[in-house]
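not sure who needs this but someone in the group chat was asking about Rrf2 family transcriptional regulator from Caulobacter flavus so here u go. i didnt clean anything up, its just raw.
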Amino acid sequence: MKLTRYTDYAVRTVVYLANNEGRLVSIAEIARAYDISQNHLMKVVQQLASAGFVETARGRGGGLRLARPADQLNVGALVRETEGGFDLVDCSACVAAPGCGLPRMLAEATRAFLAVLDGYSVADISRQPEVMRQLFAQRA
């Protein structure tokens, strides 16, 4: 299974925010830290805010922060929110579809994949926060 760049950016965003708790962070800062597109990141942040993963503050001195503590943000929920769907194959035009067991197997594998992610929080991604902060500081 391969996750989209959109989900990758969403995970990077919440990880960065988790490592910068207590202050508002700009989208530009996150984009610089990861060397990624600020325009693309803006779309990701908008969805993360709509879904309740981040809070935004507008205006001078504004920015974003996690909506809840990192240990309360579930990785599986984040991936479900940002991925468009989990159909790994399109069997609609396949002649063998009515008798094929592959779609069922792939659906089971997807459920297992998401179940593993459900067992982790954003805090689990940042297992070494001091190392993460040093790495981000080097990029600033």
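also The first strand starts at residue 54 and ends at 57. if thats useful
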